[in-house]
Specification:
Layout (H helix, E strand, L loop, with lengths): L8 H14 L4 E5 L2 H9 L2 H4 L4 E5 L4 H4 L2 H11 L4 E5 L18 H6 L3 E4 L3 H14 L8 E8 L4 H13 L5 E7 L2 H9 L8 E5 H7 L2 H10 L3 E4 L3 H16 L7 E3 L11 H10 E8 L3 E10 L8 H4 L15 H5 L23 H4 L4 H8 L7 H6 L17
Parallel strand pairs: 1-2, 1-7, 3-4, 3-5, 5-6, 7-8, 8-9
Antiparallel strand pairs: 10-11
Helix pairs in contact: 1-12, 2-17, 7-8, 8-13, 9-11
Bound molecules: iron/sulfur cluster.
Amino acid sequence: MQSTDFGNPIHVESLVRQIHAKSTRPLTLMEVCGGQTHAILRYGIDQLLPPNLRIVHGPGCPVCVTPAETIDRAIEIASSPGVIFCTFGDMLRVPGSQSNSSANDLMHAKSQGADVRVIQSPLDALRIARAESQNTSPGAPIRQVVLFAIGFETTAPATAMAIRQAKELQLDSFSALVCHVLVPPALDAIFADVDHGIDGLLAAGHVCTIAGDHPYHRLANQFNLPIAITGFEPVDLLRGILNLVEQLEAKPTSCRVDNLYEHIASAEGNLPAQRTVETVFAVCDQHWRGMGSIPQSGLKLQPQFASFDASSRFPQRIQPGEQTSCCRAADVLRGKIRPIECPAFGTLCDPNHPLGAPMVSAEGACAAYFLYQSLVPLNPSKLTSSVLTQSEFPNPKDNLAP
Ligand code: SF4
């Protein structure tokens, strides 16, 4: 398939028809990728599906799962004198635990004079640290550059490269506040709940591109779960959904892993990237926002890189506050509800007044529903009751919100 075919309405129409034809019973499918969440909502893919086919969204947004106490630490470190704090833009408005204080996010710290800089890659922070160390006037203290290192398996290699280079360069003014998390252990936590209610899983192809597909084979076996590894374009997503419907409608039901992202993700993943991560990080237990502590789901610095750990370099004075929000992000992240089923959605909570991280982040599920909720609902009965001509078939791009 050519790259230009992944949004082709003819392929979309064919896949939607096959899904309608093969779907005979209520099914709930989970995806775990902010990019997939937004693509599903943006292109109205959920509205093209049979009414008994429900898509829920798991912990696929790294910003959304970063715990409030880590945001507190980020604000505290960013507000320290002589610090340049480097972060992805999504993190600026994620609330910490001090809900009674206006100083509860990095944006506020920046407005109060903290040098908070938005970066595109962890290596940008390294470049800033190198420039600072070379440009400082003689005798003046070199400013500390702190990288807020968050993300899944996909961003951990770039963080590891930045830290490894900082060690090679003996760049002592560089450090990282590390909050990287791993997807499969979070899925273990979700599917270990006997009431999870999820029939099949769309796995994110880009995570498998780095980590390989072997964790998903174990998940499929352990939880009798059909899994389709897929991408982010309409045809990718519909192929994944069709694959899961076929596995679930088969008799007996199938519970295998099918890699539909095989043009990019190999079974073993990106081995050099994995080695870089293993050199710099060790796996550790990790607290996830809304999901609690999950065993072996995070990364911490290996002992030989411990001096680059910002959390031990900067003293902690602020204790986590008590969180009393009515935000139901925990239920959203576990696929128990969809964002529109949260009572605060669009009333108490919107992107201008977010109560939780999923409404803040560009990859958050709540933000996706809010952004694209104005889509005109399609009539699925048209897809089954008559043959549409090409001109009648809805072009997903027509559904884009203004
Ligand atoms: S809509 Fe707002 S309050 Fe509800 S779960 Fe999402 S972020 Fe939390």
